[in-house]
Write a structure and sequence with these properties.
With 198 residues, the protein is α/β, with parallel strands linked by helices. The chain has helices spanning 13-17, 28-40, 55-66, 92-98, 100-106, 121-138, 151-159, and strands at 2-8, 48-51, 72-75, 145-149, 178-184, 189-195. Strands 3-2-4-1-5-6 form a 6-stranded mixed beta sheet. The longest helix is centred in the middle third of the chain and has 18 residues, at 121-138. α3 links the parallel β2 and β3. It is globular and about 50 Å long. Bound molecules: 6-O-phosphono-beta-D-fructofuranose (F6P).
């Protein structure tokens, strides 16, 4: 059985304001979460941590990697967060007020909806699969795997290991104080949502 630890980055300044997209830094709370993760995983061997290209995933992975000996961080653009196109940097409230057509169209069809000049869950599928292929290619078959990603991209990754209806995927719970522990077994798939901070 192989372990995949699927972690969402810690709190960012954008998260605090409910703003989407961008390349925001972790807040002090986000840094504390990263250090709590480092402590939590200190006795679990993780040779490589995969992240996206965004600062928030790299800043979360760095303290974890520092507690491992040795550990490399590999940033994969395939794990970048959903690109919200014209809505990047806006809050959900601003989208509702300034671009009601977006909020209206996305609501009932969140999986298939594609942001103007951006992406949708459905259009991310191919690149997320490509990223996972790279992960399995770069790790030895019996090693633990850690991916530090984002809300939407982690939902897509998780859905590759669980059977979920398309329309359920954009609503999978993806908190910042817990991670998904997925046990990859040829015969069964087990997953657990694990808190890392008291
Ligand atoms: O944490 C914010 C975020 O990662 C945004 O960058 C992204 O657009 C959003 O979450 C995805 O979640 P949802 O599909 O529920 O809007």
């Amino acid at each position: 059985v192989r372990n995949l630890f699927l972690v969402r980055h810690g709190e960012t300044y954008y998260n605090r304001e409910d703003r989407i997209g961008g390349d925001s830094d972790l807040t002090d709370k986000g840094l504390e979460q990263a250090h709590a993760l480092a402590e939590h995983f200190a006795t679990v061997r993780i040779p490589i941590i995969f992240t996206s290209n965004y600062k928030r995933t790299l800043q979360t992975a760095t303290p974890i990697a520092e507690r491992q000996d040795p550990c490399s961080i590999i940033a994969l653009p395939e794990f970048n967060e959903i690109h919200a196109g014209v809505c990047e940097g806006m809050t959900y409230e601003e989208i509702r007020r300034q671009m009601p057509h977006v909020a209206k169209a996305r609501g009932p069809n969140k999986y298939r909806y594609v942001y103007p000049e951006g992406e949708g869950y459905a259009t991310m599928e191919e690149r997320v699969h490509r990223g996972l292929k790279k992960v399995f290619f770069l790790n030895n078959y019996d090693e633990n795997i850690m991916i530090v990603g984002h809300r939407a991209v982690n939902r897509m990754i998780l859905s590759c290991f669980l059977s979920r209806q398309e329309e359920e995927i954009p609503y999978i719970y993806m908190p910042q104080d817990r991670y998904y522990h997925i046990q990859i077994d040829p015969h069964k798939r087990l997953f657990e949502l694990v808190p890392y901070k008291n």
